[in-house]
Amino acid sequence: MEFFQIVSYALLFLLLFFLIRLVYPFIYLNYFVRSQNLQEKYDATWALITGSSSGLGLILAERLAKQKINLLLLSNDLESLRSQCLTLRKNYPAIKVESMCIDMSQPAETFIQSIEGELQKKPISLLFNNVGYVPVFNFASSEWNQVESHINCTVTNTIQLTHTVVNSLYKRKGIGAIVFTSSIMSFIPAPYSALYSSSKSYISAFAQSLAIETKKYNIDVCVVQPGPISKTNFLKATGIDNFEKDPFVRLLYSFSQTPKQIINLMLNSIGKFTVVDSSPLWGLVRAFQLVCGENIILYILTKTSTLWGLGRSLKKKSN
Ligand SMILES: NC(=O)c1ccc[n+]([C@@H]2O[C@H](COP(=O)([O-])OP(=O)(O)OC[C@H]3O[C@@H](n4cnc5c(N)ncnc54)[C@H](OP(=O)(O)O)[C@@H]3O)[C@@H](O)[C@H]2O)c1
């Protein structure tokens, strides 16, 4: 075989491998992962879910209740928490459902002791770090408290909560799982929400390292990185009027998955995979990044970021 022929075959093989790699996680995770019962797998009696009052958290609570796992629900809206607890207690009388109304954007000192108190009463073996929101502002002109609130909620307090639960599992030699809801945005720059993508990057990187450390204690770590998800309060929580009608957002959300699909993937991946990429956009983004490289993408975003999405909405708002 001639040298050039060998090189062409090698390149063709690499291309084929790359294409399979791009579609395989999406097809495998969405269609072939078997369902599992976490109550049996981890002998779980209690689960703690942050951001439980709407969207993904709401469906997650329902699915864990179905598996007969007692629930400690944490979010910031007393009314939604109350009605969620009532519904779950009515539909699943065999389990205990308790809630804590906590603003996670506040410093951890305001609530961590009450969580530690709960951990002494309840053997929590499943923690779902699901809380998250998109902070929308121009970083240069923002107030520090806007920045601090988001970092408190999605990074500092999430990590401290994880530390508290992992530490208690370690001390009582319990088995369990720590699950993070990250995002496809963990590897995509988000102009005018720099904190969102960076907090998700932090969570994804943290989860991967933690997974290696805690495996020997039989504590599984899983980080789910979804793309756009329909039917949640996520877009409304940006505070931008009619944001869901923005042409770019509509295009993005035409690739969306439902909360049920994401929760199925999440629950069925725990203990089998550490990183779960589910979005049909995943392959597209990764291929684009590999072909163009970061700097070309950043150049394009810098030139166009006020023409679409958050940049366009902020510009309209300030005019
Ligand atoms: N929807 C998407 O397109 C999408 C895509 C990728 C990743 N994600 C991630 O998925 C996770 C769930 O989002 P979702 O789509 O289900 O949105 P969602 O419906 O807005 O749910 C967010 C949850 O977080 C809670 N929360 C927000 N700020 C809080 C605070 N300061 N203290 C305590 N709880 C707070 C909310 O509770 P209250 O409102 O009651 O305070 C709510 O329960 C987030 O981590 C998000 O980043 C979403």
Automatic annotation (TrEMBL):
Q: Give the matching InterPro entries.
A: NAD(P)-bd_dom_sf, Sc_DH/Rdtase_CS, SDR_fam
Q: Which Gene3D superfamilies match?
A: NAD(P)-binding Rossmann-like Domain (3.40.50.720)
Spans through the membrane = 6-32, 44-61
The keyword RNA-binding is annotated on this UniProt entry:
no
Q: Pfam families given for it?
A: adh_short
> Any keyword Membrane?
yes
Q: Which UniProt keywords apply?
A: Membrane, Oxidoreductase, Transmembrane, Transmembrane helix
As for family, the record states:
Belongs to the short-chain dehydrogenases/reductases (SDR) family.
UniProt xrefs under PANTHER family? ALCOHOL DEHYDROGENASE (PTHR42901:SF1)
Give the protein's recorded name.
Oxidoreductase
User: Which organism is this protein's natural source?
Assistant: Anaeramoeba flamelloides
